[in-house]
Structures are given as structure tokens and as C-alpha cells.
Specification:
This protein is mainly beta and 440 residues long. The protein has two domains: 181 residues, Immunoglobulin-like (Sandwich); 207 residues, Immunoglobulin-like, CATH 2.60.40.290. It is 9% helix and 33% strand. Strand 1 and strand 2 form a beta hairpin. The structure holds 2-acetamido-2-deoxy-beta-D-glucopyranose (9 copies). The site of one 2-acetamido-2-deoxy-beta-D-glucopyranose has 4 residues, from loops. One 2-acetamido-2-deoxy-beta-D-glucopyranose binds next to loops.
């Protein structure tokens, strides 16, 4: 009955932490200010329009845009055309048949723009362009968390009174997930010259803010968590059907590893449609957290991330983990680390990502499709315990998406666990609270 009660209390704890962020949709508790801001700076007026530099800032701590890159779309308000572009291109020219002589780059009412690829000749580049639409997250590398292109617009207004901001801005990354607000007229941007001795400014600036919702991006989760420990041989797997269920009656929906010959040849570039190895969880990504060793003053965890998707090499992948002992992370092997403290006083969230040219790419499913690391934590005697699943993470995100955790009552337990109710402050509190309720 004691164990049942202790489990119930943990269940309550998790229930609270779980509900507190499944209900929040576009709001991300671990990155409350995260957004992508698109800045549209009008640099000069032309006889029939203007030249603007459009810059995409990824202010999200841990959500990046990986290959095949962003796509930015909008709807013009007047009869605008795009005469030319530098550092980007419209995906379709559209119908320019009424132009003679000079043909615009794009005549569509709703153009879609993509970045140019690396290796674009220098005379077609501007700064922060030409990375194939890949934008890193702010915490990982602020220098490449920006992407720009220059656009020369015609048949628009030619003064700040007659020009109209684009509307219905859509950002695909490259799939759905982002919702963009209207363009706002803001204080014109200032630019500092390379010798830092002169400031120039845009003639006019519009800001557009886009926010992410995992629910809009995909109806199903994309990763799950499995757990194990040195003190119990049980390996707690990802919950069955975490990301989808195997359809046994429909052969070929996933790749059965037992029949090696069906492993598909690589298509050689990332595809948004996953091709999964058959698993009971059907997630593209599994994160395994193993409580490995107990020392006198420290304890050690091994984290392994496995890719089950044959159609995706995850470049610049990242992991966000929440555990109360991250305030005393002492050593970390083969991953980069940065503490995230959205709420200044709680230091329990860590962002982990691969080391450049070593393991910053999580390869497609197969023998190379995994990365791993070990974390060494210093015990805080007043908090540390292997009891009640304390050593396991509270939340895990992979590439900014929340991973499905096993139910707390299935966690590996200490052998002969007889939770000492009297010494657990939480239980004492709960009992006090419950008895107060009963007495009332
Ligand atoms: C976008 O993110 C930046 C950086 O976190 C923040 O300063 C800004 O207020 C955010 N904008 C909106 C509209 O939330
Ligand atoms: C347009 O420019 C004028 C003069 O520079 C300025 O006073 C006015 O506020 C600007 N209007 C807008 C909408 O930016
Ligand atoms: C822009 O969005 C509005 C409201 O969402 C919609 O009514 C309108 O048709 C859209 N315009 C274009 C050109 O897509
Ligand atoms: C507009 O966006 C830029 C770049 O993200 C930012 O520095 C600026 O503060 C924003 N302005 C407003 C009013 O949000
Ligand atoms: C499995 O696939 C069959 C054939 O496409 C379909 O009729 C059935 O609804 C699917 N079952 C599930 C559980 O998705
Ligand atoms: C992933 O990278 C490997 C090695 O660079 C390459 O052989 C493979 O085709 C790539 N797969 C995808 C899906 O891009
Ligand atoms: C959070 O904990 C880490 C690891 O112990 C430490 O490096 C970092 O300085 C701490 N940050 C704050 C704001 O306390
Ligand atoms: C880290 O652990 C040591 C030893 O237990 C403790 O004195 C220190 O306060 C801890 N640091 C933090 C940030 O909790
Ligand atoms: C290991 O943990 C499981 C719960 O996941 C529990 O059922 C089992 O009794 C534990 N084994 C031992 C030896 O305590």
C-alpha cells in the first residue's frame, strides 16, 4: 500500500507537469519568448518601387530549420512584381506575359521564396544568405540563426505613404508548424558600417513574428523516451504506439529489420515523409536514458539517441532535457551543453547538441544512426535519491518536439523499495494536505 501510495504521488507530480504543457500549444514553457521574426527593411526607393532586405531571425533557443530549408510565402497587396533578387529566389516565376523587354523575376500574386544553395557565386550573394535555407537555433549558434535575401519590388508604392506591407505571410520549415502575425510598421532598423564609424538606417521597417506549434506541425509525436538503470534489469521501453501503430495488414508501411534485404537504398536527401524501421513505438527518434553508475559524491547517466527514419539525416540536431540535477552537471562527454533558464531561479533544463564534424549529424536509420553521451552529476545530498524514479528526466525534447515518456508507474524501481514516507518532504506535505482536507 505504501508503494502504491508513493507511486500515486509521483503519478500526480507527472500529471501536473504533463498537463501544464500539453494544454499550451504555441506557448513553449521551456522557451517562452521563442519566435521567428522576419524583418523587412526598405533600403531605397526606385522609380516604380523599392529595394528591401528581408531577414529571418530565429530567436528560438532550440528549434532550428534543417535541410531542405525554409520557404517564405506572402500575398502582395497591390500589383507588385519582383524585378530581381539576390541571395534567394522565387520558386515560380508566374505569368509575366504582359511585360515587354525587361521580364521580372516573379509576377505571382503569392510568391514563395527559398534560399540559394551553398556555393552560389559571390556576386549573387548577400550576407547571411545561401545556406540552403538552413537556420540554426539561437542557443546553438546565433551567428547562423539568421538568413537574408534582397528583393527589388516594382509596381508598388514608392513612398512610405503608398507602399503596402505584404500580408498572409507563411513560413514553412519546410513543413507546417509556424503561424505568422501581420506585418507591423516599426522603428526603422539601424546598420553600423564595418569600421563602426557610421550608422545608416532603413527608410522603413516591417516586423512579422511567427510562432511554432508542435500540434500544427504534426498530429503525432516524433520521438519517445525509454529508461533503464543499473539497479534494476528492467528496460522500460517507449510506450507502444507512441508515435503511431504498426499496421500489420498493410505490408510495406515500415521497414522490417529482420528481413535485411528490404532495407531501402538511400534516396540521398532528406524527405519530410518518414520511412521508418518497424518498432512497437513507430517513432523516428528514440532517446534512451540509462542511470549507469553510482559514486559516493557523483552519479552518471548515459544518453543515447537512435534514429529509426531512413529518410532523414538530422543535421544540427539538439536535445533538451529537464532534470533537477542539471544545476550540478559536472562533466559531459562528446556533446555540447548549454543551460537554459527561462525562469532565472530554476536551473534544471539543459540543451545538448552534437560536436561539429564529429556527431552533429544523426545519420539515417541503420548502424550509424545513433549518437550518445555520458553525463556526470554531482549529488546534492538534500535532494539526491534513486528512489521514486527521481534519477529519470522530467521532460525530453528532440529538435524542439516533446518526446513521449513511459508512464511513471512503470519506471525501474529500486530493489525492495520500501519508500520511507516519513522522510520524503513531498509525501509529508501531501499527507498534511490530505489530512487537512479530511479534518475540514
Ligand atoms: C521574439 O523573440 C525575441 C527574442 O526572444 C523577443 O525579444 C521578442 O519580444 C519576441 N517577439 C514577440 C512578438 O514575441
Ligand atoms: C513617412 O515619412 C514621414 C517623413 O519622413 C514621417 O513623418 C512619417 O511618419 C512616415 N510614415 C510612416 C507610415 O512611416
Ligand atoms: C489572406 O488571409 C485572409 C484571412 O486569413 C484571407 O481571407 C485572404 O483570402 C488571404 N488572401 C490571400 C491573397 O491569400
Ligand atoms: C523588429 O525586429 C528586429 C529584429 O528581430 C528587432 O531587433 C526589433 O526590436 C523588432 N522591433 C519591434 C518593435 O519588435
Ligand atoms: C491498416 O491498413 C488497412 C489497409 O490500408 C486499413 O484499411 C486499416 O484501417 C488500417 N488499420 C489501422 C489500424 O490503421
Ligand atoms: C545521409 O548521409 C549519408 C552520408 O552522408 C548519405 O549517404 C545518405 O544518402 C544521406 N541520407 C539522406 C536521407 O539524406
Ligand atoms: C546552471 O548550472 C550549470 C551547471 O552546473 C552552471 O554551469 C550554470 O552556471 C548554472 N546557471 C545558473 C544561472 O545558475
Ligand atoms: C552543487 O553541489 C554542491 C555539493 O552538494 C553544493 O554545495 C552546491 O550548492 C550545488 N550547486 C548548485 C548550483 O546547486
Ligand atoms: C524493477 O522495476 C520494475 C518496475 O519497472 C519492478 O516491477 C520490478 O520489481 C523491479 N525489480 C526489482 C528487482 O526490484
Amino acid at each position: 500500500m505504501y508503494i502504491g501510495f508513493a507511486r500515486f504521488s509521483i503519478f500526480l507530480m507527472f500529471l501536473f507537469s504533463w498537463t501544464s504543457f500539453t494544454t499550451t500549444e504555441a506557448y513553449d514553457a521551456l522557451d517562452p519568448n521563442g519566435n521567428i521574426t522576419i524583418k523587412w527593411d526598405i533600403m531605397s526607393w526606385t522609380p516604380d518601387g523599392y529595394v528591401a532586405v528581408v531577414t529571418i531571425f530565429n530567436f528560438q533557443q532550440y528549434r532550428h530549420i534543417q535541410s531542405p530549408g525554409w520557404q517564405l510565402g506572402w500575398a502582395w497587396r497591390k500589383k507588385e512584381v519582383i524585378w530581381s533578387m539576390v541571395g534567394g529566389q522565387a520558386t515560380e516565376q508566374g505569368d509575366c506575359s504582359k511585360f515587354k523587354g525587361n521580364i521580372p523575376h516573379c509576377c505571382k500574386r503569392t510568391p514563395t521564396v527559398v534560399d540559394l544553395l551553398p556555393g552560389t557565386p559571390y556576386n549573387q550573394q548577400i550576407s547571411n544568405c545561401c545556406r540552403g535555407g538552413v537556420i540554426s537555433s539561437w542557443a546553438q549558434d546565433p551567428a547562423t540563426a539568421i538568413s537574408s535575401f534582397q528583393i527589388s519590388v516594382g509596381q508598388s508604392g514608392t513612398t512610405n505613404k503608398t507602399v503596402r506591407a505584404p500580408r498572409n505571410v507563411t513560413l514553412k520549415a519546410p513543413g507546417p508548424g509556424y503561424t505568422c502575425g501581420p506585418a507591423k510598421n516599426v522603428v526603422p532598423s539601424k546598420f553600423i558600417s564595418t569600421d563602426k564609424r557610421r550608422k545608416t538606417q532603413a527608410l522603413m521597417t516591417w516586423n512579422i513574428t511567427c510562432t511554432y506549434s508542435q500540434f500544427l506541425a504534426r498530429k503525432t509525436p516524433t520521438c519517445c523516451v525509454s529508461l533503464s538503470s543499473f539497479y534494476n534489469e528492467t528496460i522500460v521501453p517507449c510506450p507502444t504506439c507512441s508515435c503511431g501503430c504498426q499496421n500489420k495488414s498493410q505490408a510495406g508501411t515500415c521497414v522490417d529489420q529482420k528481413i535485411a534485404s528490404v532495407v531501402p537504398p538511400s534516396i540521398g536527401k532528406n524527405n519530410l515523409e518518414p520511412l521508418l524501421q518497424c518498432t512497437q513505438h513507430m517513432c523516428p527518434i528514440r532517446v534512451h536514458w540509462h542511470v549507469k553508475t553510482n559514486y559516493k559524491e557523483y552519479w552518471r547517466v548515459k544518453v543515447a539517441i537512435t534514429n529509426f527514419n531512413y529518410n532523414m539525416n538530422y543535421t544540427q540536431w539538439n536535445l533538451v532535457a529537464q532534470h533537477p540535477n542539471f544545476d550540478n552537471l559536472t562533466q559531459l562527454f562528446s556533446f555540447n551543453y548549454k543551460p537554459l533558464n527561462p525562469y532565472a531561479d530554476i536551473n534544471d533544463t539543459a540543451m545538448l547538441w552534437g560536436i561539429k564534424f564529429y556527431n552533429d549529424m544523426l545519420s539515417q536509420a541503420g548502424p550509424l544512426g545513433n549518437v550518445q553521451s555520458e553525463l556526470l552529476f554531482r549529488k546534492n545530498p538534500s535532494k539526491f535519491t534513486f528512489d521514486k524514479g527521481w534519477a529519470f528526466p522530467r521532460r525530453i525534447y528532440f529538435n524542439g518536439d516533446n518526446c513521449v515518456m513511459p508512464p511513471p508507474d512503470s519506471y525501474p524501481w529500486l530493489p525492495n523499495a520500501t519508500p520511507n514516507l516519513a522522510t520524503s518532504p513531498f509525501i509529508v506535505l501531501l499527507i498534511t494536505f490530505l489530512s487537512a482536507l479530511i479534518l475540514m
